Amino acid sequence: MKTKIEKPGDRHRAGSVQMKVWVPDDLKNEFASLCAVQGLCASVVLRGLLAAYVERASGARHGQAAQR
Known about the structure:
By secondary structure, the protein is an all-alpha fold. The protein has two helices and no strands.
């Protein structure tokens, strides 16, 4: 059984998983460019988008009005 040895500063934290998604090249490139121009890490922006979606969708599921 292999055990992952975490190094100091390892970006892969315990409890994190990798997601792979297929997106059009132009969308990926424009997203990456906009993140870079704003000085943001694309993965941080994506995690924020996922968290915002889950919060909004779970609120709608529990009878709260969905925000737009």
